[in-house]
Structure formats: structure tokens, C-alpha cells
Amino acid sequence: MFTDDAGKGGISAGGPGNSEDTTRRTGGDLVQLITPEGERISHPEFDSWLQDVSDEQLGSLYEDMVVIRRIDAEATALQRQGELALWPPLLGQEASQIGSARALREDDFVFPSYRDNGVAYCRGVKVEDLVRAWRGNASAGWDPFTVNAATQQIIIGAQSLHATGYAMGIQNDGADCVAVAYFGDGATSEGDVNEAMVFAASFQAPVVFFCQNNHWAISEPVRVQSHIQLADRASGFGIPSMRVDGNDVLAVMAATRIALDRARHGGGPTFIEAVTYRMGPHTTADDPTRYRDANELEDWAAKDPISRLKSLLDRKGLLTAELEAAVAAKADAVAAELRYGTINMPEPAPLDIFKHVYSTPNSWLDRQQDHYSRYLASFGDPAEAASEEGAR
């Protein structure tokens, strides 16, 4: 299995070669290491960053992608059954999320968007915590500092500013960890992302801007958002970029390692455009058939990231019955854990809304809580009275 800590025998963020030269030279070209048919393509600059990826680790990447697809399907089903208010599917983007997340070190810090549940899974977030906010049981799903991942950002692109600020803090601390901001193609049209890149370039902050170009910002196609490749936008800020096949887990991993290595050694920010496709709706409240051609969906289905890695494993003689059974069992177990955790999730107490609003006591908030407590007590509900007493 992969480990997030490169110093413990797993995926290393470092590698041979000059990462700065690589990012400068690959900006406009789509880098692919695995074809849709599962053929491994050699690349003179990217191959060296994958020399330590063993056959066992390829199987582990395959398991990760199958598992997060199953999480996605289970969460979608839970929403359709009324257990979740909303869910943003990641179907089709598994390679982008797993390939990048498994390149990170444990002390790197991730700033995800609402769709990056695969990244959160790799960082160690419990599966029931992935849906806590979508069920309406909490304002956020997990404690960011227990997994070095901020809670998912709903405001489009805002996390890029947070990542850049965190990266500037890394500089002040003299550390060599890296901040990574995940966002979609639509976010590149937002002011927050552009402002973040200005700051990152100005201060040469150790941050990676990881854009999953899934071709649709809700119903707006990427060709309308930008008449040039998104990776080329970064050059206007003085930020080197890479454009990789986002359905190719190895290409994504290599590109992320290059960017991380560059940031760790004082090279500043990098922009990665992972060209992928959102196979499902924007969220479960969306109907993509209203704006998307079925032929386009069919074309991208032929480039499926999981089928691609599965074909590579088969070509290498690694797709054994034992591996497939183990992966299926893991996916089943995680899905069952998600379903059980969702349905049995305890409802928050009414006064829990006041928790964690501020890190220190706040008289203004205390006054609101007191008023709300007395309001609840006016109904004479024993449960509410107990909740009020507990809060005091």
C-alpha cells in the first residue's frame, strides 16, 4: 500500500532531474503515460519520477480508485434515498484525485473543493465524515489538523487563497512542506484563484495549484470559459505549468511529484491542469442531459481512468483473481461503513450551532446563546432543557 510519508518507504515527492525545467517545457503538451487501452508509454522526463512505483503499488492505486468510485456511488444512492441533502459526484475524476493525493507527504496540507472526496479519503478522513455536512449534521466534516486537510470549500476558488496564505506561513516557518489547492476549470474564472496566483508568484510560495479540468462548470463548457488551454493562463502570472492526462493516474502522480519537489526546493508555485471529465452531474440537483451531448459522454467513457489502469494491470499479468476479489471486498466494506455511519449519525443538539464559531470566548456569541437557550427552554421540552443545562 502507499503511504503519505515519503520517509517511510512509500511514495516520495522527490525524484531525479530538474523539476523546474520540466514544468517550463511541458506547459502546452498533454502528458500521457498510460493510453486508454492500457498501454504504458515511455516519457523521457516523467518516467524518472515513477521509478519506485512497484507492481504492488499499481494494485494499490487501482484499489484506491475503485473504492472512491464506490464511495461516490453509495453517497449518490444515499442522497436519492433522502439520507443526504446533496452530493457532488466525482465519477470520472478518480485518477486525478488518487494520483495527486498519493504523491503527497503526510505534512503537506491540502485545501480541497467540495468534489475532492477521493483526496480526503487518501488523507485519512473517515468515510462518514465525508457526508456529515451534506447530511446537515455539522458545518464541517472533520478537524483539519488531524489529517492535514482543510474542510471542503463550497465557495468556488476560495481555497486557493487559503492555500497560498498557508504556503507563505510555511516559508516563514522555514519548513519544506507544501500546500496544495484543488479546484475545477470553472474556478479559474474566479477572482480568488487569480489573486492567489498573484500572491503565490510574488512571494514564490510553496503551493501547487491543481486544476481538474472536467470540461464543465455546471452547465458552462470550458471552451466558453477559456479560448486557450488553462495551463497557459499560469504563465501570465510567471508560474510554470504542466498539462497532463487527468485520467492517467501515473501521469498525474509524476506531475504532482515534480511540482512538489520544485516547491520544496524554493522553486515557488506550479500550476497543474489535469484534463479529465465529469461523467455525472455537477451535483445530485443537476441534470446534465439538459446541456450535454450524449455522444460526448460516450467518447469520454472510453477513456475511463479505472478501466485504463485495469487494462495496464492485465497487460502486466497483475490482474489476478485474488487482487480483484480483495479490491471488491474493500469497496464493499467501505460502502457498508459509509451507509451505516450515515444512517446512524446522531443528530446535533440545538445549541451545538454555537460550538467552534470562535477559537476564544466571545461575549457577543455568548449573549446569542443565552437568548436561544431561554427560547428553547420556553417550550418546556425536557430534552431541550437538558441540552441547555449541558451547554451551561
Helix content class:
40-55%
Task: List low-pLDDT spans.
Answer: 1-17
Order of helices and strands: HEHHEHHHHHEHEEEHHEHEHHHHH
Number of helices: 17
Task: Summarize the topology.
Elements: H1 19-25, E1 30-31, H2 55-80, H3 94-101, E2 109-111, H4 117-122, H5 127-130, H6 132-135, H7 144-147, H8 158-173, E3 179-184, H9 191-203, E4 207-213, E5 216-217, E6 220-221, H10 222-225, H11 230-233, E7 241-245, H12 249-264, E8 270-275, H13 294-301, H14 305-315, H15 321-343, H16 363-377, H17 382-391
Parallel strand pairs: 1-7, 2-3, 3-4, 4-8, 7-8
Antiparallel strand pairs: 5-6
Protein model, in words:
With 392 residues, the protein is α/β, with parallel strands linked by helices. It has 17 helices and eight strands. The protein folds into two domains: 6-343, Rossmann fold; 350-391, no CATH class. The strands form two sheets. Strands 1-7-8-4-3-2 form a six-stranded parallel β-sheet, sandwiched between helices. A two-stranded antiparallel ribbon has the order 5-6. The chain is globular. The chain starts with 18 loop residues before the first helix and ends with a helix. The relative contact order is 0.16. Residues 1-17 have low confidence and may be disordered. InterPro entries: Alpha-ketoacid_DH_E1_comp (IPR050771), DH_E1 (IPR001017), PdhA/BkdA (IPR017596), THDP-binding (IPR029061). Residues 65-333 form the Dehydrogenase E1 component domain. It comes from Arthrobacter humicola.
